[in-house]
## 1
Amino acid sequence: MAVGAKSVEQRHDGEATDKAGFAAEPSDEERIFRTIMEAAQVGIFVLQDQRFKYVNPYLTGLLGFSAAEMIDRMGPLDVVQQAQHELLAEQMRQRSAGVGGHSYELLVVRKDGSTFPATILGSPTSFRGRPASVGTLTDISLQKAAEQRIRELADYDVLTGLPNRRLLRERFVQLLAAAERDKTEIAVIFLDLDHFKRVNDSLGHSVGDDLLCEVARRLDSVVRRIDTLARLGGDEFIFALPGIHSTAAAEVARRLVEVFSRPFEVAGHELTVTPSLGICIYPQDGLDLESLLKNADTAMYRAKETGRNAFQFYSSEMNTMTLDRLLMESNLRRAFLQREFILHYQPLVSLESGLIVGVEALIRWQHPELGMIMPDRFIHVAEDTGLINPIGDWVLCEACRQAQTWTEEGLPPLIMAVNVAPVQFRQSGFVEVVAGALAASGLAPGCLELELTERTVMHDADINLGTLSALHRMGVELSLDDFGTGYSSLAYLKRFPVGKLKIDRSFVNDLETDPDDWAIASTIVSMGRSLRMTVLAEGVETGEQLAQLRKMGCDMAQGFHFSRPIPPAGIADMLRLQPFANR
Ligand code: C2E
Ligand code: MG
Ligand code: MG
């Protein structure tokens, strides 16, 4: 494209000029100057009042605009992305103030909308007697691409395209800083293929390479975007998983092992390989990448010793803890299918009449080898794994069935209190599950009381209000368990259709000796009073505690002082001994 097309305009001093600002009849000097400009392999422009006054052919070629389109009509801001306008405007201000420039980088936008990186260097000058600037623009796309390629070669493993040790180290510095700041953990997993050398030796290195690529692809699909999967070379892969504790790391490791359960198809071969994994956790197993890698490596060798195709933690306590838990999880599933859960019942006693007016259903796991396992040991695992829903539904049905059976046996009607876990309460269709348990057993809704903790109710209080109201309309009673340990807001408490507060047993425990506990318990009693709720004290073990609670005006109590949780037959016997039984 020719500069200064043929259009001619009138210069302020009356001399005819072309669009580029040159005289129509150029002098020799100007002609030489123009030849240089037109031949230059760099974009050159003159700028005045933020408009182009001259652009050389190389620049118009780069941008796709003609000189006529640019001169006097466009300025640099028209060929740069919005995000960089401020930077550019500042540069132009400095040039027009006579400040010399140094080169800076911009992303330039062509007429067709495409972009390319460029460096710009401007310096102040004068044009037609007024301040202006002259600038050069260099397309640096090739240079950028080369830099990118160099970075890739330096940071990524050429075979698999995964980050290499260098990039892993770089990222780990950031992970460590974040973990230290947020007091979170990082799991480092060392994965090594078992007997990989055999593949190389028997099928050749190119098959081995293809296998490594396939393995890398599958491993990569298991981890999250924030995780780093790197290849250290050979058949060694490293995972850096931020914000992950040991149980979650074990879960990832299990999934990684699972990745190898299907054979890999490589060059017409079906290859089965297994991995050995070592896990260690920042900060307890090491404070920097080198020691974490070393310890994960040690753990990985232990996994190989214990039979390959498995994972091991570096610290042995963690091994037992996590394995216990995984074992617990699969055991729980089995236990549910084999009907190993049973319910015991603990009397709820009215302090006014001294009579048993209800029972709380408490789950136990009757393990065929380990004997009876108490809920504190398995309920949280059931909650974490979602198993609490089927288990909880079973408890509801079984407790309702038992209560109705007692009624049909002629025993006085009782309140059947059933614990509901947060996850279970929030599962969709919980109201229907309750309605189903009542319908199947024939129990009157007023005989069923659901025990929720403060945390369950207060979490998403507005959503829960809907569920609570639906249950309340059905006629089901609601109580707040372990009361005093949560953070109930009184304002909310008033809105909830909850009829009973159960003072947590930690306050009842030291009632006689700890004035603070006494104060908390008596405050809960009077608060419950004023909200017209029934107050029950949990964990009453002594006559003295009972006397104190009576003095406060507490309505009900539960605890070893009256009875431990016992099998249903024991409850029936106890009820028959009560004065009103068999009436
Ligand atoms: P919780 O609902 O607060 O149940 C009362 C716990 O206190 C029971 O423990 C009971 O045995 C114990 N306890 C009762 N009286 C006394 C006493 O005088 N002294 C002492 N030291 N303890 C007493 P358990 O049966 O081990 O249950 C523990 C927790 O497990 C329960 O606390 C409840 O949160 C949960 N849980 C039990 N059964 C179920 C269930 O079916 N579903 C759900 N989601 N959770 C359950
Ligand atoms: Mg309870
Ligand atoms: Mg409780």
## 2
Amino acid sequence: MSESAPREVSRRSFLQAAAVAGAAVSAGAQAPALVKGKTVPIELPALPYADNALAPHISSNTIGFHYGKHHKAYVDNTNKLIAGTDLAEAKLEDIVKAAWGKPEKKGLFNNSAQVWNHTFYWNSLSPKSTSPSAQLKARIEADFGSFQKLRDDFANAAVTQFGSGWAWLVVDGGKLKLMQTANAETPLATGQHALLTVDVWEHAYYLDYQNRRPDYVATVLDKILNWEFASENFAKAGV
Ligand code: ZN
């Protein structure tokens, strides 16, 4: 993130920082080592593309705040909330499920679910044009009638989610469905298998689109939705 880089760094410290960043990325592919009794930090995953790769549809300025500030804050808050608890060594997915529906863990649910939702959102976007696999395309046509109908229903779900939340394409009970969730709520907690998501919190679009959520949603759906990611998730759903 250019925004988090120091304004003035020596070439040496820059190279050291780059080496550390590279090591962090490659280490991220492996499961973190468990240390008994210690918090295993939930990590902020690297963006799957450069912070300006989605421009002009989503600007690097939006990504700087959305990923660099909001997503990072959810990671930091989750780590604070699990420190010293029985979830200190748990995986993110297990933390989300353990906190779901428990009033005393509402803060932990909101923060940990938002970590998972945002990582899923970044992967739901792609700077290159993608299309669904033949299997997913056939299922879209069976369950929605046409790709265009799915696209229009998806847009409607994203635009009409009242307030902050998410629109999702999921597999539920063996069928493709659209769902809306409020705030941090997530299909990970409620048992649906997510294929794609669109973040409709204002922080996702306000810098680029101000109050024009329909324009942001149409742009995401028509220009940068990652159908390769959806196809991989569909294959994993095993339907
Ligand atoms: Zn967001």
## 3
Amino acid sequence: MSTPHLNFINGEWLAGNTLAPNLNPSNLADVIGEYAQGDAAQLDLAVRAAETAFPAWSTGGIQARSDALDKIGSEILARREELGTLLSREEGKTRAEGIGEATRAGQIFKFFAGECLRLAGEAIPSVRPGIGVEVTREPIGVVGLITPWNFPIAIPAWKIAPALAFGNCVVLKPADLVPGSAWALAEIISRSGIPAGVFNLVMGRGSVIGDALVKHPGIAAISFTGSVGVGRRIAEACVQGHKKVQLEMGGKNPQVILDDANLQQAVELSVQSAFFSTGQRCTASSRLIVTEGIHDAFVEGVKARLAGLKIGDALTAGTDIGPVVSQAQLEQDLSYVEIARSQGATVQAGGQRVACHTGSGAEGFFMAPALITDSTPEQRINREEVFGPVASVIRVKNYEEALAVANNTEFGLSAGIATQSLKHATHFKRHAQAGMVMVNLPTAGVDYHVPFGGRKGSSYGPREQGRYAQEFYTTVKTAYTLA
Ligand code: NAD
């Protein structure tokens, strides 16, 4: 049996109560490793260590912070192929996608290595003579970070890097389904020169570690990415505990295709954002809203493109779409295809479990991407997040109806439009009720140096990433001085 992967608390590797296996969704016989499962007492140890480390870390100088973040970023980038391979093995996105995600994690650490040197304040004249006013930003304390399974290294990175850059201490609770990438990142951080207690990793169940983290009085703020149901409960607990909170949750992202779109481009960007990474992206397009004149050609184009895709082992060269992450997620994806059918929609392609088309042919959670047509905005398939390779087409008359349907959702993360019309693109950018808007680009796929986040039921609190990350990870102080 391989060496177990332990929790990292106060600069030491500590065993949890039990161990849980990390399984490869492309090959159910492949156990990636055994990972510690902590309990509430261990979580308490981590929070106390972080509280103890906070005074020195938060005032200790930005050069040391910048150097540590830069070193972490450099190691991730140097090891991107190895880390990307591990990520694909545990999560199921293709190896190319896994390496892309690991690269992004490295770039994020490099970006925040610079950001900690740029935390500017303001000097403002007072309305009272002889007094100066300064507005500065200070760290908030110990932050609890709770992350989902679909971006096992990038999401921990885009929370850890700004938290540390701006002088906070961290307790990370990664998704229990994919602890491998977060553990590898913690191991890199453990050798970066960051003092004991500043960064802590506690793996384990959401209902145990996540719940204890959210309720711990030593935690000043929680940054959460995951499902709507868990996010809402976390928000309530944070309000009760007087904690700052940031939530990034689900999506039901619309991709509008107008008659004047470049057909080939519209097909490609829709297939890319709906089905690549197995559709397991919060920014994936799951509602394809298509005007009448291009509808049939678009559907035929998507079907033809899907027929050529290879579904198989995430680590095999030539695989286009890897497996669904778990048995439970696969069952959810398949059940939504049935729900769509039962409510009157047509399954044009895919929607069933399939054997591996590439690699060893091992047993895994493979599913043929499902294209659903004849769906209406009120059907469950167009209202609830599936979070798999399932997309439904809604036929509309014109741009005005397309925009109304796009906004007819409780979510608001990303929205896309494919059109040659500057007028419609400009109008859509202004009126799409989403945090991110894409013109002739997939709804999924964003830069690491600009804000990321949504509106309505998708997000709550300040934006993540880019220089906007400082809104959440700092608190403002106003100081008055009599000259
Ligand atoms: P999830 O809500 O089941 O779990 C997310 C994290 O919360 C995990 O670490 C889990 O262990 C933890 N958790 C579970 N119960 C908890 C509790 N009671 N208290 C505290 N923590 C708890 O989500 P998931 O299945 O891992 O991820 C999929 C979801 O994440 C989808 O809805 C997707 O849209 C969303 N997501 C959103 C974004 C975004 O930026 N908007 C990005 C990626 C994923």
## 4
Amino acid sequence: MVDPTETVVSADPAVIAGLDHWRTLPIKQQPSWPDPAAVASASAELASMPPLVFAGEVDQLRERLARAARGDAFLLQGGDCAETFAGATADQIRNRVKTILQMAVVLTYGASMPVIKMGRMAGQFAKPRSSDTETRGEVTLPAYRGDIVNGYDFTPQSREADPARLVKGYHTSASTLNLIRAFTQGGFADLRMVHSWNKGFAENPANQRYEGLAKEIDRAIKFMEAAGADFDELKRVEFYSSHEGLLMDYERPMTRIDSRTGLPYTTSAHFLWIGERTRDLDGAHVDFFRRIRNPIGIKLGPSTTPETMERLIDVLDPDREPGRITFITRMGAGRIRDALPPLLEAIQRFDATPLWVSDPMHGNGLTTPTGYKTRRFDDVVDEVKGFFEAHRDAGTHPGGIHVELTGDDVTECLGGSEMIDEQTLATRYESLCDPRLNHMQSLELSFLVAEELSRAQRA
Ligand code: PEP
Ligand code: MN
């Protein structure tokens, strides 16, 4: 990230050496590449590519997240469980951005606060798996680890880890981000237009329950117009990219020294999170991500103890920097009300203000008798409600939601106003990994969360 107009600060050699310390530590969830020389050459190619995001944007996001951690903003993070190369089409990207923008308008009204918009997009290609292999009938092959590693087709050739996919992952992220930047800067994000799409949702008889809130938003927009609000200012929105920081042969070469500060930034996305399976305190991922400047998310499952949480803060945020860490809790609807309160109580004895975000997806998986991985919309909603309740009781700020969603009309999660049932799942189940909320379910969730937020505001 060298810009000749800026002072070039070179990094401390110890900082650069530290970026490879993870190589000496236990590491989980990495592919076994058959050809190490090909990985080295793909890594070298990635290291020579331009950054996908810029240090200044990353710093700006950290400030935005600090606001959310203080209770003055709300984070909406959403997108596919696993993006695919084939799915990086203009239509699918547009529909996802559109859905996130629509949700954000509803949430902004409910929260009376700025909503930080962030996609699980433009790089969410690597997946942790519960098993290294997959068996179908008599055949056992390596598990699918995401398009940046291997193919989904169940053949030995497709399932072999292919380092050429690292480079393709970069290019697909670049074209996705390019389109996102165009959509969010070029007039598509105009508040009045996004609002008109939402009217369509509320006018659908299935969504009558939300008519009241939709009318309130409509009046608010009319009021703004009448009062002479500068709608030109409302044509552009900030939109940040994020993905799980999992695949080290991708994230390490995408990490660069910022010429203004001499500090390392991972330029594959603005925000990276460490998954529930790879957040070991002594493991490679925590060591690597503690050394970079990007804001970092950490998934916390229901077995997280206050001690683990405190140690994660000490390691990843020793300076207690506002906006630095986000805890993304994914406890399950049945566990959230027991598992979250002890953490919220402990945090008040600890001198840290992380941002708290609810992932109401990953603790609520189930498999139907017909073999579909799914989630019940009601469980998703119940976990979010439990998240808000726990924060209300503790006096902490419920600062955001992290959702697996798509802008398309898929049938992957059960329920919602369209009442998708087990029979319907088969009609349009497209996810290669976890089930996503479809367009309608996503909007419905945003209305329900907006109700929670306005209740929290009034309390
Ligand atoms: C995910 O976000 O897709 C994921 C694998 O989550 P977790 O680490 O919480 O299981
Ligand atoms: Mn997932």
